[in-house]
Amino acid sequence: MKRFHSTKYLLVTAVIALILMGFSYAMAMQAGFVDAYMSNNALIEFIPDECGVLTASNGVTASVDFNRDIAGKIVDKAHIKLTARGFYPGARVVYNIAARNISNIPLTVDQYKLEIDDKNQSLRDLIRFSCNVKLYKENDSYYNLLGSFKNIGIDELAANLTSIMKYRKIDVNEKIVLEFSEHISQYHQMAAGKSGLSYKLVPVFKQYFPGEEQEDEAEKTT
Amino acid sequence: MIRIFRKRYRRRKKVRFGNLQHIGTVCVAVVIACALLGVAYAVWNQSFDIFSSISTGNISIAIRDINVESSDDYETFSFNPIRQGNVVRDVEINVVTESNPFNMILVFTVENNGTVPVVCEGIDNSAGNEVDVLLLEAPAKIEPGQTGSIRVKLARGYCADFEFSSFVRFKQAT
């Protein structure tokens, strides 16, 4: 009798747990778009044909690439790799990075996160960044310049991108383009030998809701 | 008879609830729950990122050969490049001459093994004024993987067992 009860109890618990998990998942999928951060590649993805190197200084080898399979086919449009080799004082590389909202909801950027590789950051204080952020609307027929910055250090990069793109609506099928420049001032003295910088920028997207900006500002004032 | 059957059946049923078949059902349910949890976790962890890597180039120059282009008159002259693999490390020069100082023009064949184009800036020597070393001519640019010829004038008065080092300076060509 005792055995019957314990096994039945386990079974019932498992079933309840399953049901609760199902509920929580469904609720998270619904409410999560509103409140929680989403960095889901189903919402937005890079456009490989439009991502590339616009200009690179003489002697600098720059490239843009994606994760590919053995056959060379792009398998992941949520990651982009920008590589510049042979940097020197005065060198500059300008990349074009394009991504499209492929979801069926309007999006906005909640924040940009920056992760710098501790093992490769010797150029951290020398590299300067500039960027133009454009939003292409109505089947890419025209664009709005959302904002731009020039000659900032890597520590200010994420904050600057966030301030330009936060609260800006990226509607369904709209395209966001970053003309992103990395350069070193020609007046910098660089140490001899191999050195570099590796970092990762992670834009965190969430669903756009009108009036969100005002609500945030109201919270700040109170 | 029916009562007996019912009693037996009930007893059997009680036993069945506690047997391995039902424990297995619970295990399957738990496994499915974990799998769903994993799927949910995976969905929430898909990322979107821009990875960037910047690196400077490296300069690596190897002297492949040194030859004498011309020199003052001499009685005897020997010029022996000492190699380590296919790189010239030292040169041994023995001259018997009445020319003082003795002048000669050497041609260094250098190869750019680095990742960036280089240009020769000049030449220094460790012996100061005891020997005159002068860069006469160098290519405007040596691309990675290419070789170039550098002409250097060397002048020295009488000496015996004199040793010195020369440093050919290269920098990244822009």
What do these coordinates show?
The complex is a heterodimer of chains A (222) and B (174). Helices cover 24% and strands 42% of the residues of chain A. Chain A is α+β, with helices and mostly antiparallel strands and 222 residues long. In chain A, the strands form three sheets. In chain A, strands 1, 2, 5, 7, 8 and 9 form a six-stranded antiparallel beta sheet that branches. In chain A, a hairpin with a 5-residue loop joins strand 3 and strand 4. Chain A starts with a helix and ends with a helix. The relative contact order of chain A is 0.19. Chain B is of the alpha+beta class. Chain B has a four-stranded antiparallel beta sheet with strand order 2-5-8-7, with no helix packed on it. Chain B is rod-shaped. Chain B starts with a helix and ends with a strand. In chain B, 14% of the residues are buried. The model of chain B has no long low-confidence stretch (mean pLDDT 80). Classes of the chains: A alpha+beta (222), B alpha+beta (174). At the A-B interface, helix 1, strand 4 and strand 10 of A face helix 2 and strand 1 of B. Strand 10 (196-207) of chain A pairs antiparallel with strand 1 of chain B, so a sheet runs across the interface.
C-alpha end-to-end distance of chain A: 62 Å
DSSP summary, beta strand count of chain B = 9
Order of helices and strands of chain A: HEEEEEEEEHEEH
The helical percent of chain A reads: 10-25%
Main sheet attributes: strand count, strand direction, barrel closure of chain B: 4 strands, antiparallel
Structural class of chain B: alpha+beta
User: What is the H/E string of chain B?
Assistant: HHEEEEEEEEE
The poorly predicted ranges of chain A are 32-41
Distance between the termini of chain B: 105 Å
Low-confidence spans of chain B: pLDDT under 50, at least 5 residues?
Answer: none
The greatest interface between two protein chains, and residues involved on each side, is:
A-B, 61 and 36 residues
Radius of gyration of chain A: 23 Å
Number of strands of chain A: 10
Radius of gyration based on Cα positions of chain B: 41 Å
Provide mean pLDDT of chain B, rounded. Answer: 80
CA-based shape of chain A: globular
Instruction: Look at the structure and give the mean pLDDT of chain A.
Output: 83
